Amino acid sequence: MRGAFCVLSMFAVGAVFGQQPNRFDVLITGARVIDGSGSPWYYADVGILGDTIAAVGPLPNANATTRIDARGMVVAPGFIDIHSHARRNIFRVPTAENYLREGVTTIVEGPDGSSPVPLAPFLDRLRQTPISINFASFVGQGSIRSSVMGLVNRKATPEEIEKMKELAAQAMRDGAFGLSTGLFYVPGNFTPTEEVIDLAKVVGRMGGIHISHMREEASHVLDSVRETIRIGEEGGLPTQITHHKMIGGPNWGKSLESLKLVEEARARGVDVTIDQYPYTASSTGISALFPQWALEGGQKSTVERLSAPSERARIKAAIVEALKIDRGAGDQDPRQRHEALRWPARRCVLRRPRLDLRPGRAPQLQRAPRDPAPGRCRRRRGRRVQHELDRHRRSAEPPHQGPRPADGPERSRCRPRHLGDGQPPADAGPQRQRDDELPGPLGPGLAPRQPADQRGHHPDRAEGPLEPHEPLG
User: Fold this and answer.
1) How far apart are the first and last CA of the chain?
2) How confident is the model at residue 465 (pLDDT cuts 50, 70, 90)?
3) Pick from 20, 212, 21, 18: which is nearest to 114 by CA?
4) 206: exposed, middle or buried (C-beta count within 10 Å: 0-12, 13-18, 19+)?
5) Taking 50 as the threshold, does the pLDDT of residue 396 lie above it?
6) Dihedral angle computed from the Cα positions of residues 431, 436, 441 and 447, in that order, rounded to the nearest 10 degrees
7) Domains detected in the chain
8) Are 129 and 90 in contact, with CB atoms under 8 Å apart?
9) How far is CA 235 from the centre of its chain?
10) Among 18-22, 170-174, 272-276, which is the least confidently predicted range?
């Protein structure tokens, strides 16, 4: 399926396969409809009157002011970005074309414990701005804490907790969908779990949910999963683990244990869920590499610590350690490190063939000297070469025109029939179709894929510094 024509999610659905009008403002014909119900796609026409989906089904005799031929395309409800940081730049770019062109019609703000506090003035300004998409918001626990007691690393007093609970309740009355936490970021990482549960109880009683950028996603990720589950279980509200991942090669594979924790919690009645983005990269501020104690008090205090030679040395040592074992430790697959122990590195790296993918030229395979030790290195070589050719073909392929066959599965157009000069290489080995089965980095001469959130402009990635306590995601 090459294209997608996304119907705005704010449209109300009128008649569906029932009594249908014969005249529409917009008529979309010949599309594959995916209606969001979980059912398989089906061919149908979609008739729109004003801002309402008035009919879905066969409409052969219908008339319309605007008719769109959607053969070979998909019609679906608008997608929802459940983790957005667009609250400032939505006012700079109210059309949000970067979202709409990707089919996103609703965004949810206030994740990672960061949001406007109080929330009402922000939502009032949003209502007065003619934006092109639907906009929802959570209230951030970190922003609530900062507004009451600043960026200090200590427990809140009972009086401060009462003030925070009232701010959370007011945000829910103003229209928040729930409470977000960013316990990895300042000041969330200064917050005891019990303090978060106190706010969660308030939000849960008012019908809200909890979403969490967990306290740790590397060496202590399982403890963080248990904490997120506990917040929902004791707070009495649904709880969601946001962009669940395992940071750092030493922690890869722990998802088996984290998923088991979630399944066990759901079995005993806790409404805990997970969301995950589909690329192998994350984005956040450089402060994520700093030790927590160095960030107390905000940017001014951090700069003062960096100006003191002894404190600067401590901070530098902590950053280097984080790059080695935490947020910089995912560059090499542990399986590849294991293979390096079994085979001399020169056999796997120096003797690997390369691809010439310069623009305007057909892809050419530059063969390396014959490897004296065939085996796993050779099979991995073939998979990497095939993967790079697949990617090159996909990027150069013209858009498909016309409808797809209705019967039988679609034939893949991404896999080339041969490599380089038209003959299959003898050492290519078995080919794999899934990128996530590749055993490791692509290696010298082969450019890795760009993560999806770094390819284009986003309204939540525009220029301008963030507040000291505001995370990127």
Assistant:
1) 30
2) very low
3) 212
4) middle
5) yes
6) 80
7) 5-77 (2.30.40.10), 80-284 (3.20.20.140), 287-325 (no CATH), 334-395+415-450 (no CATH)
8) yes
9) 26
10) 18-22
